[in-house]
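Entry 12.
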Amino acid sequence: MPVIQILDKNFIPFISEAAIAERVAVIADELNQEFRDRQPLFLAILNGSFVFAADLFKNITISAEITFVKLASYQGTSSTGSVLTTIGLDKNLRDRDIVLVEDIIDSGKTLHDFLPQLASQGIRSLTIVALLVKPGSIRYPLHIDIAGFEIDNRFVVGYGLDYDGWGRNLPAIYQLKEEDNA
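Predicted 3D structure (tokens):
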């Protein structure tokens, strides 16, 4: 995987397409076991989780549904500090087992602000699944049930993650080069 340029930044390879596919399959197996006697509703957080959610859901062999909610907290390479709900829930969540699918958990603010709204819907259970987690950056207490990869505090793109809307289509994950981290 070569160095790539997106807008004004350079990114270097970080997590390969093969490593992601392998980890997604393991996560799906774990969820298939955990929910084998239930019919969970997968709730994917847009925009970033759409690739992860699609690949994960393709590996789900149990009876399940999927829906989406759009939350936004990033602009450029940093969090804005505020969470906007731009597309809301379209399913009845009462008494449902929810598998919340997130691309990356950074500070945890997005989920911290969204979880009370989810809890108010009368859900039966909540399982939080994130492709990437930055443990050193989490500032809001969260119980993350399944983390695909734990990473340091670095800015990443690809596999649904973006830099100002660009780079989501990359099949692997790239990290910002050090000299571009200013």
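Annotation: The longest strand covers residues 65-75. The domain at 17-154 is CATH 3.40.50.2020 (Rossmann fold).
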